[in-house]
Hints:
4 strands; CATH 2.30.170.20; 1 helix; alpha+beta; two-stranded antiparallel sheet
Amino acid sequence: MVRQLKCSFCGRPFPSSTGSMYIKNDGSIYRFCSSKCRKSLLKLGRDPRKLKWTEYYGKKERGK
């Protein structure tokens, strides 16, 4: 059975055999379902809460 992962940018599930993974020097791991998500976060620096096509659209920060 293939494990489902969650995209770090858009929040949609995708199979573990697809997508890409990015590991920062501080040890944090980002998993992306597509190059669109990877480029939006790493190259363009977009906020997923401001894009309508993400699952995180319109969500506020927790813990305040």
